[in-house]
Design a protein that fits this description.
By secondary structure, the chain is an alpha+beta fold. Helix content is about 35%, strand content about 20%. It is built from five helices and eleven strands; from the N terminus they run ααβββββαββββββαα. Strand 5, helix 3 and strand 6 form a beta-alpha-beta unit. Helix 1 crosses helix 4, helix 2 packs across helix 4 and helix 4 packs antiparallel against helix 5. The longest helix is centred in the N-terminal third of the chain and has 19 residues. The termini are far apart.
Length: about 230
Amino acid sequence: MTVLSVFQGAVRRLLGQNPNTLFSAQDPLQIKMQEIIQEAALDLSQRHDWQVLTRLCTLTADGNTEDFPLPADYGRMLLKGDVHSSQWLLTYQAANDMDEWLNLKRFMPAQVPGYWALYGGQIHIIPPPPSGEQPCFGYITKNLAIGADGTPKLTFDTDTDTFALDENLLKMSIIWRWKQAEGLDYSEDMQNCELLFSQLAAKDKGSKVIRSSRIRPTGMGIWGIPG
């Protein structure tokens, strides 16, 4: 289903109309709906680690570099995710904030394999991973739309684009957001949308992960009892 079909389905429900185009027209309805559609798509993608939007980034270390560029399509880290080592059982530890990161850089407490932080459009790892190490992490792509040729893209800009997630969910989100913008009662429509969102998220395989306690170094070495 194209973004045009989603838009038409929403407008039929809302206004009893069936417009022929979305992006090639400059009518107030189309212009307003373009903004609502982009807003809805972004919101739906941010609230769950959707399997279809999940990507894997693997870094290549040289023993000196501690600052690595993020992937071009990087949107955000997984809601539940770590940076994994290719050489150690343990994962890299995330700094909670910039103050902690600065303290880690100054004092560098002993921790295998090290620590990481995100800032400045990069992922930073200390100490610099040794040559041959390949830290990796999962992330959510920012490309929510798919062109007619199958190319992922950041936003919808043509009628033939499709949504990476469930089109019916996008349509229901458009409907309540349009009613909200028009000052109409949208509570029931939003509840129905939230119900569908919850159902789809529950079915999404990427959300069903049972995470055990993280193993931490102890006096017994890295094979110590989970903390």
